[in-house]
């Protein structure tokens, strides 16, 4: 599920603040086609965001800060092991080995280079902050939320940031007339 902007593909679901989601419903087959026409022929995902509730006002803050690491690095051969393996393969098919015993010993003594440590970041920070206000009375309901998410990836040069603001307001003027506004702003940057 992606949308192309200026040659880059963006997953539109990543722009939604997970703390704003009340429910997710998947419609498929005839039910999706009946409501959404040909655009729903492959199925439809309906995401309902939170609304205010009548009777009481709520102010809520949720947040966390932490660090993430690569859970397991691959066990790789060093240069001396690779050179020995290449020589063995070449010898098994009748070719002259590429590396001399002295070169393999030099590889063993050099210590090599850990390419995984060069590519991965250790203790990459991640933080998430959510602030929401909601409430209502007999005739109206409101919900306002703001969120900030910042995650530095475990691979160097990768990160994801999202700033979001959502406003949901609904007012019943009579049994036949209801007015509502549901607005969402989201700015996501993924590298």
List keywords for this structure.
191 residues, alpha+beta, 2 domains, two-stranded antiparallel ribbon, 9 strands
Give the structure's gist in a few sentences.
By secondary structure, the protein is an alpha+beta fold. It has 4 helices and 9 strands. The chain has helices spanning 30-36, 79-92, 101-110, 115-119, and strands at 3-5, 8-10, 21-27, 44-49, 58-68, 124-136, 140-152, 159-172, 178-190.
Description:
By secondary structure, this protein is an alpha+beta fold. It folds into two domains: about 5-70 and about 120-190, no CATH class; about 80-120. The protein is built from four helices and nine strands. The protein has helices at about 30-35, 80-90, 100-110, 115-120; strands at about 5, 10, 20-25, 45-50, 60-70, 125-135, 140-150, 160-170, 180-190. The chain has a five-stranded antiparallel β-sheet, with no helix packed on it. Strands 1-2 form a two-stranded antiparallel ribbon. β7 and β8 form a beta hairpin. α2 (about 80-90) packs antiparallel against α3 (about 100-110). The protein is elongated and about 90 Å long.
């Amino acid at each position: 599920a992606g949308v192309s902007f200026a040659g880059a593909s963006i997953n539109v679901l990543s722009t939604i603040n997970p703390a704003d989601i009340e429910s997710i419903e998947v419609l498929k087959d005839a039910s999706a086609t009946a409501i959404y026409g040909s655009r729903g022929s492959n199925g439809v995902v309906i995401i309902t965001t939170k609304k205010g509730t009548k009777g009481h006002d709520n102010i809520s803050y949720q947040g966390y800060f932490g660090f993430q690491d690569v859970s397991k690095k691959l066990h790789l051969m060093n240069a001396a092991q690779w050179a020995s393996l290449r020589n063995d393969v070449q010898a098994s098919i009748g070719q002259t080995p590429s590396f001399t015993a002295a070169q393999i010993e030099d590889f063993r003594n050099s210590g090599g280079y850990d390419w995984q440590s060069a590519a991965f970041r250790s203790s990459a920070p991640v933080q998430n902050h959510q602030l929401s206000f909601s409430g209502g009375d007999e005739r109206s309901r409101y919900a306002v939320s703001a969120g900030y998410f910042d995650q530095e990836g475990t691979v160097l040069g990768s990160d994801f940031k999202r700033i979001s603001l959502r406003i949901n307001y609904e007012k019943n003027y009579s049994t036949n007339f209801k007015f509502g506004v549901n607005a969402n702003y989201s700015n996501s940057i993924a590298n």
